[in-house]
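thread: overnight batch results

M.L. [08:02]
morning all. the overnight job finished for the chain we discussed friday. pasting input first so we're all looking at the same thing
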Amino acid sequence: MTVVSPSAVSPAAPATGQRGHAIRALVASVLGYAMDGFDLLMLGFMLPAISADLHLGTAQAGSLVTWTLVGAVAGGIVFGLLSDRYGRVRVLSWTILLFAVFTGLCALARGYADLLVYRTIAGVGLGGEFGIGMALVAETWPAHLRARASSYVGLGWQLGVLAAALLTPWLLPLIGWRGMFAVGLLPAIVSFAVRRRVEEPALFIEHAQRAMRTPSAKRPRALRLLVADARTARASVGVAILCSVQNFGYYGLMIWLPAYLSKSFGYSLTKSGFWTAATVAGMALGIWLFGIAADRFGRRPTFLVYQAGAVVMVFVYAHLVTPAALLVGGAAMGVFVNGMIGGYGALISELYPTAARATAQNVLFNIGRAVGGFGPLAVGALAARFSFGVALAMLASIYVLDILATLFLIPERRAVALE
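M.L. [08:03]
and the structure it wrote out:
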């Protein structure tokens, strides 16, 4: 039963798209997602130090990433449902707080077992932030800027990843991996700010008021709305495929990129961090451009261009050998490989009604995260059997599946009025 009432949420929000409300919602969503990005790439840099200190094998180290993402799937489903029932802002603050507390507890881990538990539960909190933030932004920004605003949320992840790539090599030798996890307590401050400064979207409040006047038996269930009819079910399958390829390629690449540069080319930790940062900068540029293009030309054409670019650039990058080529090629690869994250918020928001919007964002994207969790394992296994170069070249082929899903399963709904 939907239990939100006008008195249970912040005072009535300004009209959708009003500048102040929209900007506060955007800032809150960007900051929450930036914390997620910082945490996961920071973990990639820390795996060697954690493994040495806790005597972990390669499979155990990789599983820390995998189970973080598995936890994100559970969190995405649970917090998506809660957000469609209790409100975007309230539940977003819960997810950030849960993520912050259990990331901080990782600093106290005594061995593999308890660290794995902390990482999994931190993942539960992480899983809720993306979809709720995307729904919050989509419901507060005007339709003609929806993809651009959603792309800014995606840029939040890159902001966090870029900070991790630049700060972790400097901080890790000073404070150790436990000190780095203690930094994860900072999102608690963001959680407080979210609850105090951001209003619920007017669109959601209107939906909640209508739901209160509707008998419980006649209220649609959010998960059922993801497969409400044949067209919606096809779109849900298509979005799940897109999100799976996105996350598999991203995590498979970014978790192992520092190790690839170190083992294959002898780069130091600092140099690996700088070259990885160039790739992340390319990703940020790609996300920004995606939002602009998707608002101007449509969601489907923009996705198809980026997917084709990912096929080409990942394959090309696997064959580069000189430092200059790796720097420039990494940035170009980043544009296409992760630029697509700029489109999911708008695409999913336009496919589903307010009663299921956060659920759709979180469930579908976190299905992708669950599949993506096997990306580091797959790349690691292929690298062990062949080489990192071969593993990356094979990674390029998965984006062909993305192209097929976009062509045959995803409808175009650019800038439609949200239901």
